[in-house]
Amino acid sequence: MKRHRTKIVVVPLGEVDFFQLNKLAGNLSALFSLPSDILQGMKLPKEAYKLTTNQYFSTVILQKLELLKASQREVILGILEEDLYNAGDAYVIGDSDRLAKCAVVSYNRIRMEFYGLPEDDKQIFKRMLKESARHLGKVLGLRSCRNPRCVMYYSDTMYDIDQKSEKLCDICRRTYYKIR
Ligand SMILES: [Zn+2]
Questions:
Q1: In Å, what is the CA distance from 151 to each residue of 40, 142, 162, 166?
Q2: Angle, to 10 degrees, between the axis of helix 121-139 and the axis of helix 18-32?
Q3: pLDDT, position 110
Q4: Domains of the chain (ranges plus CATH)?
Q5: 3 pLDDT more than 60
Q6: How buried is residue 172: exposed, middle or buried, by Cβ count under 10 Å (0-12/13-18/19+)?
Q7: How far is the CA of 15 from the centre of ligand 1 (A)?
Q8: 170: CA distance to ligand 1 center in Å?
Q9: What CA dihedral angle connects 7, 143, 108 and 15, to 10 degrees?
Q10: Alpha-carbon torsion (22, 23, 29, 32), positive or negative
């Protein structure tokens, strides 16, 4: 069993609303029973930018985030407004690297305005929390869950994200406390 205390470190990439970020860090702390910190932030890495689609390559962002780690105990969560893609997908809402213990989540497609709908801060916050929790959960050793209500349920559509809760199901919670 690991005796050292893991810490969640939230990193804004580019312009990100600090109030929402603060709330996000607090909620993730409560969910995983871990302390959290917010770093001052980082510029969006130019080398991750793809001009033709106006997106950022998540793999490069995850590599950059890993460099910010002050110790092996930190798990990093990068948050950005811009759209993400990776080698396998034309777009992703979030991505993670389990070995590097880094995750990144984008607001872009979880915003209502992406679908031409009026903005709803509460809804956006919930979606961001759920997707951040799922990717952080993976970094912390959890796997995708089959329970559609569990926050670890694989969700890449707004419908699936909105249907699931912001909590770990009983099975995932037990697993989490066993592997921690
Ligand atoms: Zn679960």
A1: 27, 11, 10, 5
A2: 50
A3: 95
A4: 7-143 (3.40.390.10)
A5: no
A6: buried
A7: 32
A8: 7
A9: 10
A10: negative
CA distances (Å), origin 141, targets 94, 99, 100, 153, 173: 17, 10, 12, 14, 12
Q: Which two tokens stand for residue 112?
A: 């209502």
Q: What is the DSSP letter of 115?
A: G
Q: Is the pLDDT of residue 2 over 70?
A: no
DSSP annotation of 140 reads: T
* Distance from residue 124's CA to the centre of ligand 1 (Å): 22
CA of 173 to the centre of ligand 1 (A): 7
For residue 118, give every residue at least 6 positions away whose Cβ sits within 8 Å of its Cβ, in sequence order, or none. 112
In DSSP terms, 7 is beta-bridged to: 74
Does residue 4 register a pLDDT over 80? Answer: no
Nearest to 84 by CA among 59, 52, 56: 56
**pLDDT above 70 (res 156):** yes
3-state secondary structure of 75: strand
pTM of structure: 0.95
Cα–Cα distance for residue pair 111/31, rounded to 1 Å: 23
- 């910010």: which residue's tokens? 68
Full strand arrangement of the beta sheet holding 84-85: 49-50, 55-57, 84-85
Ligand 1 centroid from CA 149, angstroms? 8
